[in-house]
């Protein structure tokens, strides 16, 4: 790197480090709000968050940033950057262009609207009042349509949105993937519905004291290799994971006294997200590459730990004793096998976040198809409830009795997060495909789990995925790790094998 | 306010609000570091704190700020500002001028040196190695001397430092005050030493489980009117209070299993600081006036609650039952009177932070006199240990066996905080004088305490002191509330009366 470029590079690194400092502070301000900030201070706190977000945003779209990016774009300069530096620049440029392209007054309108809209959505959900929410959602969609024009239309308009959460994912690819998945999962779900077998779940309907649940969550997180010196577990209304920096990755869970599995699985889920960020190469700290590479890959790590490990028979063969020791009275007549079966009960239901591992994907496909209709086919917001209900009837054989448990159930759209839902199923598919490779490379995987030796799993994932952070794109990772592109058959194979055995199909 | 000025005023308010946002974020980042941030994340966190502090600092000394302050300084503009706005401007101007007057490279040298020096101090204290610390402390003192020149010498050089913590306090005033106090307290301490009475404290040397201590601290804080919806109690190595915003004022304590009084008194102490900030007029939120007016007045509130209320006989007559209920085994044979006496044992000791309510002031006077000698009389850093030891012998009849428990015991000087110590005794004196007025205005004060009715005390303090925040100076507050200037006789009267009775002098 010539001396002049080197000076610019140092300036760039400092500017980026500064932006990351705002993000760490904002991350902590949010984390604190959700885990125990005093109620009366939240109004002032929200204002503070708004002010500091704006400061961070200004740096991202600053003239200084624009000039530096222009310098690095010159061929004689770009060729002097190593691969990692080029990725850093690309990542920053993507944010810069996205933010820079929206006129400030449009962005402000969007910010204000989406926060109003979230409040309206909450009321509307509560009262099953889609009509009351519709004007807000319509305006959000209209603004998002404008944004797509500013950002630039990719293959289709909806492609532009997909790419924001899953870089380089397209409607063309995803249509094929989801069609294939749907074609295999819908019959599986139907077969299970016809099955006479039904896992027993009565023993889950008891009182499980919170203190014991917390101890168990801490134990399981330790087992999976979550580093408590680089993170902590707290309680919040909705579980989440947040990486403040690569050595401070916090998770939360929610303990329900009448549902012992909820906290266990949310701990494993958020623990999976956290393992990813805790094990990113420390060299990437302070750069924009120190995080998960996409929502989909992130979700693959949470779901691999939650479902593919945490809902496996070997897992419960090993850990049921611990569960029982924490709740000896409640579970004295229960076996590991019963617990395993109960944790894998399939039930067609209306609510995504309560869905089982299998039908969950159908909830996502429904949302994907509807979002695509909105942005690519001109489906109006007014038509959403009817479309929603028809698809639920088609794929899950259920019609929501009201919009509160139907089209109004999720927060995402109220904040304008279109294109996000697909990540959840992408996560499942990536996870199944990664697991398939892991089984080849760690042939005694089930034995290890059954012996409670989870460290080799974490090490393998660190080596294959975690350490790369954002320095590889999702498609690159999946290709390098598994040798092929994303292939939905791995998830379908996994689910078919698992549920055929459980439901004796 | 004319339209042009109004525009500038709005700009000023926004700029100030922005600086306050940095302070809230930094306050939370620090609080988090001390109450449970994961160990491995602290290096990156410290870097983040450094970066955001610099950003906040840049705003304070920005050209924009300089221009606005110049505008408000023009007579035709200043006369358009109301009293509160003028105070706001004055407060901001003071910070601006202080920060602006130091050349950036000097400031940076000081920042780096003081953080190195704190590390060196820790080692030196551990090893009683004053010689190893001396070069750092000498450099700190030399830089502070330079700073005094930049800031401008007031009546004396040391006056400049005093004024930073206690606005408008001077060596002339403080010399007279401390001489008077010393003249009355030294004989009192000597009389107590000769007394044959000795409060029994053996029952304090038992095991008091942490969980119960915590419950009791929470109960007492609630009793004094600390608002848990505008604050929270956590544990940290050193107890502290921090106002993130006027409705988010947090405190910490430290539970020692072998010392039940430590957490009680640190909770009352930090609770006193917190009550002050929680009850500042909400109109002052988002302005530089939303905090305590000086270190001395702040300390008066912590010490009033900790010592004058919390170490009073009426307090223990009321709350001993609660203490006993939390530790029924440990305290079954103890009475309220015994507890009261034990909590007021006077002992000449070497360590300031372990000192009792009476001798504490002598520890402070020693430090004040030494600091004054350094800055006004050219006492060299090399001479500090000998000077220290001579004064401890003079005032407390003790000579430290080594510098670790002598001149090296406090962190303050290693960070350059000269002029700070006086605040602690100023706090005691303000508190005694305020208490004297409170007794006149709430004649049944002791009865109220004995009945556990502490709310009127909080209300009185809110009305007289808390609500004003920084909109009055310390001397204005004490004059308005008590009708006279700071007078050390109130503290001396209070201590003489209390200890003459306890020690049957």
Pick out its properties:
3 strands; 3% strand; 3-stranded mixed sheet; 64% helix; homodimer; mainly alpha
- Main sheet record of chain A: 3 strands, mixed
- State the end-to-end CA separation of chain A: 63 Å
Mean pLDDT of chain A: 96
Helix count, DSSP H or I runs of 4 or more residues of chain A:
21
Tertiary shape of chain A: globular
Work out the radius of gyration of chain A: 23 Å
Oligomer: homodimer
Binding site for Zn(2+) (chains A, B): 269, 273, 299
Cofactor (chains A, B): Zn(2+)
Family (chains A, B): Belongs to the peptidase M32 family.
Protein name (chains A, B): Metal-dependent carboxypeptidase
Summarize the topology:
The structure is a homodimer of 505-residue chains.
Chain A lengths: L2 H33 L6 H19 L2 H11 L1 H4 L4 H19 L2 H24 L2 H22 L5 H9 L5 H24 L15 H15 L8 E3 L5 E5 L2 E6 L6 H19 L16 H15 L3 H14 L9 H7 L17 H18 L6 H13 L25 H20 L3 H6 L4 H10 L9 H9 L6 H14 L3
Helix pairs in contact in A: 1-2, 1-3, 3-5, 6-7, 7-8, 9-15, 9-21, 10-11, 11-12, 12-17, 13-14, 15-16, 15-17, 17-21
Explain what you see:
2 copies of one chain form a homodimer. Chain A has 505 residues and is mainly α. Chain A has a domain at 3-101. The first copy, chain A, is 64% helix and 3% strand. Chain A has 21 helices and 3 strands. Chain A has helices at residues 3-35, 42-60, 63-73, 75-78, 83-101, 104-127, 130-151, 157-165, 171-194, 210-224, 260-278, 295-309, 313-326, 336-342, 360-377, 384-396, 422-441, 445-450, 455-464, 474-482, 489-502; strands at 233-235, 241-245, 248-253. A 3-stranded mixed β-sheet of chain A has the order 1-3-2, with helices on both faces. The first copy, chain A, starts with a helix and ends with a helix. The mean pLDDT of chain A is 96.
């Amino acid at each position: 790197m010539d001396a002049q470029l080197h000076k610019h590079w140092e300036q760039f690194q400092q500017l980026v480090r500064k932006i990351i400092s705002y993000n760490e502070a904002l991350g902590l301000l949010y984390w604190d709000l959700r885990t125990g900030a005093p109620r009366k201070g939240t109004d002032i706190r929200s204002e503070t968050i708004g002010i500091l977000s704006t400061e961070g945003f200004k740096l991202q779209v600053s003239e200084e940033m624009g000039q530096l990016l222009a310098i690095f774009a010159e061929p004689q300069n770009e060729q002097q950057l190593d691969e990692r530096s080029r990725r850093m620049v690309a990542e920053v440029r993507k944010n810069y262009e996205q933010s820079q392209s929206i006129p400030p007054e449009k962005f402000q309108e969007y910010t204000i609207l989406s926060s109003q809209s979230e409040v309206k959505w909450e009321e509307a959900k509560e009262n099953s009042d889609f009509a009351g929410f519709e004007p807000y959602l319509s305006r959000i969609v209209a603004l998002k349509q404008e944004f797509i024009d500013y950002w630039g239309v990719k293959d289709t308009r909806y492609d532009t949105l997909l790419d924001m959460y899953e870089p380089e994912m397209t409607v063309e690819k995803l249509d094929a993937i989801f069609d294939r998945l749907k074609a295999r999962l819908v019959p599986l779900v139907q077969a299970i519905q016809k099955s006479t077998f039904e896992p027993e779940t009565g023993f889950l309907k008891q009182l499980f004291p919170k203190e014991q649940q917390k101890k168990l969550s801490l134990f399981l997180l330790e087992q999976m290799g979550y580093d408590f010196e680089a993170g902590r577990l707290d309680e919040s209304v909705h579980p989440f994971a947040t990486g403040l920096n690569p050595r401070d990755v916090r998770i939360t869970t929610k303990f329900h006294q009448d549902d012992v599995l909820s906290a266990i699985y949310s701990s494993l889920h958020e623990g999976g997200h956290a393992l990813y960020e805790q094990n990113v190469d420390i060299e990437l700290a302070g750069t924009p590459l120190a995080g998960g590479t996409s929502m989909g890959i992130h979700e693959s790590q949470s779901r691999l730990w939650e479902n593919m490990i945490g809902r496996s028979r070997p897992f419960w063969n090993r850990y049921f004793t611990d569960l029982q020791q924490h709740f000896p009275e409640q579970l004295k007549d229960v076996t590991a096998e019963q617990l395993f079966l109960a944790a894998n009960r399939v039930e067609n239901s209306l609510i995504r976040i309560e869905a089982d591992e299998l039908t969950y994907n159908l909830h996502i496909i429904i949302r994907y198809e509807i979002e695509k209709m909105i942005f690519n086919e001109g489906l109006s917001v007014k038509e959403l409830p009817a479309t929603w209900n028809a698809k639920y009837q088609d794929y899950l054989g259920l019609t929501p009795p009201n919009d509160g448990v139907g089209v109004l159930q999720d927060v995402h759209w109220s904040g304008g997060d279109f294109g996000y839902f697909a990540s959840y199923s992408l996560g499942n598919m990536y996870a199944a495909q990664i697991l398939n490779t892991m089984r080849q490379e760690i042939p005694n995987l089930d034995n290890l789990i059954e012996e409670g030796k989870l460290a080799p799993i974490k090490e393998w994932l660190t080596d294959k995925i975690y350490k790369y952070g954002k320095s590889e794109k999702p498609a690159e990772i999946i290709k390098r790790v598994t040798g092929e592109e994303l292939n939905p058959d791995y998830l379908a194979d996994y689910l078919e094998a698992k549920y055929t055995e459980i439901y004796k199909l």
